[in-house]
Prior knowledge:
Layout: E1 2-6, H1 10-21, H2 23-28, E2 34-39, E3 43-51, H3 53-59, E4 70-72, H4 76-82, E5 87-90, H5 101-110, E6 114-117, H6 120-136, E7 141-142, H7 145-148, H8 155-160, E8 166-172, H9 175-185, H10 190-200, H11 208-211, H12 214-227, E9 237-239, H13 246-254, E10 258-267, E11 277-286, E12 300-306, E13 310-316, H14 321-336
Parallel strand pairs: 1-2, 1-5, 5-6, 6-7, 9-11
Antiparallel strand pairs: 2-3, 3-4, 8-10, 8-12, 10-11, 12-13
Amino acid sequence: MKIQLVGLGHVGLSLLELIVEKKELLKSRGLALSVVSVSDSKGTAVDHRGLRPREILRYKPLGWKGFGKFAEGFMALDAVREIECDVTVELTPSTLNGEPGLSNIKAALAARKSVVTANKGPLVVAYGELARMAKKNGVRLLYEATVGAHVPVFCMVESCFKADEIRSVRGILNATTNYVIGEMEKGKSFQEAINEAIRAGWAEKNYSDDVDGIDSARKLVIIANALFGYNASLKDVKFEGIRDVETLVKAARNENRKVKLLCEIAKNKGAKNKGKLKMTVSPKIVARDDPLATVNEGNMAIKYSFKTSKEIFVSAQFLGPKQTAYAVLNDIVRIGQQSCC
């Protein structure tokens, strides 16, 4: 199966490493992956017979110097439109307007290529349009990595709960804030905890989207649209962050409880708002016997409530981009094997 990769940040490079690492395992399961192009902000490397991932990993840090297969100025969108492949893997940085990922994904779907992405931006601003494009053109759009890295948010529901009705979701979906709150529970101030998170690699120097709840709110929009069939946008989410959470952390510690930045979706029950969703992101005190209280450091989790199956809780240890890249690889495999999960 031929794939093209757009975006060579931490997740993209980790994906290439996994393709090398898992090559024999995937072959044993009847799937051979061929990377025919990779694009970054400078241009695109192309080999229709298949690039060697180790070469990409070697030459990318060198700015592609000495790599004859790299065409500077042959940008990602042109590569998506012109290069033949089965799957476009879109891993450019997430932005509020969805670009450039949105244009890349639209171009791939229009060319009847399946798409795998870890990029939240396009799904937040145009989930419905993209889903309709994929269906119309007979291809797949998979995005498991967008919300909880390798936490099975979408494929588990789609494969295991086809005959059930999802009623609500509660989750811890931002690794940075979970780590920061954990440090504050040890007695650090917010700024001390942020500094420690940056030092330990859990936070970027520009951490506003994480600590202000924006990243978590965007993830809720994707869940609402994909699992609840809703037409949500960011303005539908009431969100607050953790900049002023110190008082809450102290109160929880005195009560032997925990604080988590909770992402919540629930169906409104009142007649006036029936059929609408209540979507919130906010720091809350969580009882020790709640499974979400066990999710510490940079780990993430989600708790579903179904009409028949009742509560289902899933958590995963999150260590970095390799776990996100694994979710991307698993989506590629799902397309190759034409499987649901």
